[in-house]
Structures are given as C-alpha cells and as structure tokens.
Amino acid sequence: MNRPRRPPRHGRPVHVVIVGAGISGLGLGMALKRAGHHHFTILERADDIGGVWRDNTYPGAACDIPAPLYSYSFAPHTWSQRYAGQQEILEYLRGCADDHGLHDHLRLGTEVREARFDEHTRRWHLRTQNGDTYEADVLVPACGQLSRPSSPHLPGTERFTGRIFHSARWDHGLDLTGRRVAVIGTGASALQIVPQVAKQAAHLTVFQRSAPYVVPRWQRTYRPTSGPLAWIGAKAARLGWWLFNELTVPGLTRRWRTRGFTAFGCAAQLRRQVHDPALRERLTPRDEVGCKRIGISSDYYPAFNEPHVELVTDPVAELTDKAIRTETGSEHPVDVIIQATGFSATEFLASLHVTGREGRTLADHWRGGARAYLGMTVPGFPNMFVLYGPHTNVGAGSVVYMVESQIRYVLDALRVIGRGTRPLLDVRADAEDTFTKEMRHRLGTTVWSACRNWYRGKNGFVTTNWPGQTAEYRRRTRRVNLAHYEPRGPADHPHTPRTPTHPHAPRTPTRS
Ligand code: NAP
C-alpha cells in the first residue's frame, strides 16, 4: 500500500519546503514520497509531529467526525472506535510518518520566522528562529487554521492567585481532584472537557456565552481486523461517511430544511437528559442551527444534572484574587480556570513573515482578510501553495478530504514546474479576485454568516470555509489550469540568470 510509485517525469528535481508537520504537512510529505519525489523538507516548530493532535491533550480529546473519514485515503486504518481518541489519532499520524520514511525529511524544533521570495535566484529563502536558513523552489505553508489558541484577556488576571490555561495547552502537572474549576466557553473542546472535569472537580462552573447545539454521539467500538478485509472495510466506511456528510452540506450552505432534523435531535436529547426545566431553558441554543459548529456529545448535558456542576450565563467581567466576577456582580470562587475559548482561525500564517515579489508582504495583501485562489495560491507569491488556507475548512465532512484535494493539486503543480513548462507558478490577480468574490457571494447566503463564530474574520466575511460540497472542491482542484497563472517563464523574467542555479539537494541549514 505504501509502495513508492515510479519517479515522476520531472525535468529537474524541485525542492519543496513544507512548513508544519500537522495532518496536512505530513499528508503532503507522504504523497510526495508515494509519487517518488524525495526532494523535500518539513520544518516543524514543535519537538514532535501531529499539529492539533499533538497540542490538544485535554481529557476527553477525540475526533468529532467519524475516524474512517478523518484519515488519509492512501493510508486506511482500522480504528478502534468510530470517534477515535486524540492518542490513537496521534499514533496513526506517527505510524504514517514512520511507514513513509518521513523522519529523514523532518526538522523538528525549527520555527520558520521569515520566508522571502528572491527574484534573482527565483527561490524561496527561509529563516528560522535561531538564524538557520533554508532554500526552496516551492514553499508550502501547512500551519493549519486551529494552531493559534485564542485566550481573551480577562481584566484582573494579574491578581488571580489560581491557575489559568487554554484547553490546547493543558496543564498535566495539575491534579484537578477536589478543586474548584471553571471552564470558559462551550464549543467543541468544552463539550469534551466538561464531562471529564466534572468527574474530578469538587465544583465545576461552566461559563456559557451562547448555548451550542449538541446532538447525540453514537460511539461504536470496531472489531479489530487485519489484512485485505480491514482495508476494504476502512475504504467502505470512509466512502459511506463521506456520502453522508456530502448530503448534509446543503443544509448549511443552502439553508435546506434538513437542518431542522439537527435542531430536533438536539432538543430531544436536551429534554431526555436534563431534568430541570429552567436549566434546560438556559441550555437551549438561540442561534440558527449550524451557524456554529454542531456539537456531538452524549455526556455533555448529563454533567449539568450533577449537584456540583453549575451553569453561568452572565458574561464574565473580571477576575478577583480567588474568583470570577460576572457583569451582574456575582462572584464564583475558583482555583483553576480553563479557557476553552477557541482559536484565531482567520489569522492565517500570522506568525510567519512572508515577502513575495517586489517586496510585497502577505500581511499587507491580507490586510482586508485572507484570500487565495482555490485557498492555495496568492498573486505575487510564486510557487507558494498554502494548505488548509482560506476557504478550505468544512462545516460538515472532513478537512482531511479537502487537504487531499490540495495535495493532488500541489503534485500537479510540481509536475508543471519540474518540466519547465512554467517554472514559476504565480496566480493571476484577476483569478484570485474572481475566486474571492465568488466565495464571499456564496458564503454570504450560508448559515455561517448568521452569527458570531470562528469562521468569520474581522471584516465580517466567512474566511475559513468552503461554500459547497467537498466533491466540488475536488473537481475544481483536479488540475492546475495554466490560464489562471501569469504567463511568465524563465526567458521573460528580468532577473533570470542565464544558467539555472538550482541546487538539487536541499540546502543544509546555514548560519547567516
Ligand atoms: P470554539 O468552537 O471557537 O468555541 C469557543 C467557545 O468559547 C465558544 O463557546 C465561545 O462563545 C467562547 N468564547 C470565546 N471567547 C469568549 C469570551 N471572550 N468570553 C466568553 N466566552 C468566549 O473553540 P473550540 O471549542 O476549541 O473548537 C474550535 C474548533 O476546533 C471546533 O469548531 C472544531 O472544528 C475543532 N475541534 C475539533 C474537535 C474534534 O473532535 N475533531 C475537538 C475540539 C475542537 P461563543 O459561542 O458565544 O462565541
């Protein structure tokens, strides 16, 4: 299954640098290997691979879409459960990296601070946190949308004597047994954290700003299988879940009435699981269903029946030395505050200073909101392909499927670049513009535009999500359409040296 294919028919090796060893960066690395392309390096700032599955180690962390769909199609896996836990997913990613021999390509503890396109060498020059430099023909930022925790500043934090941490930076040195714990936020992470913390804490206070829709999680344990049957089973399960999710997409993007089923499922679960009608009322969602990510949990609501679990719906105002004070003035004594407040998803590549042609920076280009043709290419930033960039997240379905579409596109781009047909792929500004207008127009009528959520940027537009079914994205990214790229080749570029100077092997990091 992991047999490398015959080497690609490249005119010359193209060296690729991937920034990030999360699910998308690793996926591209695996696909490159499988395509017989060995000239690549993966730079990862942390000391381990896995991205969000390395970072989110909170109790109860698990996939909230069925794992058979949340895995690479080219590395099917027999999962132990439908909604696999964080550790199993991380092990899967590690196994994939081992099986595909990615370790020789990985540079851990390497944080890229700057990436600059050099017009003379026609390559990307990268600088890391400790001054090491790397060069690449092709740059692939694969930094994810959910890698920057968002921790709102709470007035009074400096005088609070307890502990505070974000859900994605869990303090495993702290035993919550017998403590008074607060969880701020009620998104997908909190839904998994609350039932677990409720088992340990002496008192748990959940601060809810808006109530989420929560539908039952039909967990299932899979029988261990191996051999061809396991492979067929994994493929079939993946196909089935993909089809199911594709059918639910129009409920979000076209506001089909099918969303009513979700609202019904949530209301039924709430009625069945929460005994106190007043509490039920406060847990009832008010937003349009689907406008925030729909929660999947069967043990979140029951936690609120416990006498030591309290729901607070007053907005948090400030911290005192030992408590959280709300805007109505009530005080809630706490020892530990867990901020399950999400991520800065719309600040794509914020920690990476990227400079393209003519000294233009990506930060400038994205001042009015992140934008990229097909979510991947940006005019003036040649041979750069962003993975899981703007407009590539899904409201239903698997991001892994979207990322695989992008991986295919990058492989096609490498063929074009390697053959010399178009050694620099610089997307046309009008192609990016038309694409962005289409996204904004289509997303404006989706349910995601109907409330505050992490999909919308500061400009109010939904920036993270794809407005259709994942099949549409797969179709549109099937091939690189050269008509959408600048017709600039080596001959007509003013700075092109007469003799190509591309070293074939990755440049070893050099101190500058
Ligand atoms: P989230 O969905 O953005 O939820 C953040 C929560 O914090 C929301 O309830 C939000 O309230 C609240 N909040 C934010 N700022 C606040 C403030 N200043 N004061 C009070 N409350 C505040 O974040 P998340 O739960 O970490 O999930 C993010 C995404 O990660 C998910 O949508 C999902 O895609 C992914 N995820 C996936 C899994 C998985 O199983 N695969 C698990 C966890 C997370 P409002 O709703 O009122 O804004």
What would CATH call the architecture of the largest domain?
3-Layer(bba) Sandwich
CATH superfamily of the largest domain: FAD/NAD(P)-binding domain
How many discrete domains? 2
CATH class of the largest domain: Alpha Beta
So how many helices?
A: 12
Poorly predicted spans = 490-512
Radius of gyration, in angstroms, nearest whole number: 24 Å
Q: How do the strands of the widest beta sheet line up side by side? A: 18-4-5-6-19
Average predicted local confidence, pLDDT: 92
Q: What proportion strand? A: 5-15%
Number of strands: 19
Provide the CATH topology of the largest domain.
FAD/NAD(P)-binding domain
Main beta sheet strand tally, sense and closure: 5 strands, mixed
Secondary structure category: alpha/beta
Intertermini distance: 42 Å
Q: Helicity level, as a percent range?
A: 25-40%
Bound ligands, each once: NADP nicotinamide-adenine-dinucleotide phosphate
Q: What is the global morphology?
A: globular
Structure at a glance:
The protein is of the alpha/beta class and 512 residues long.
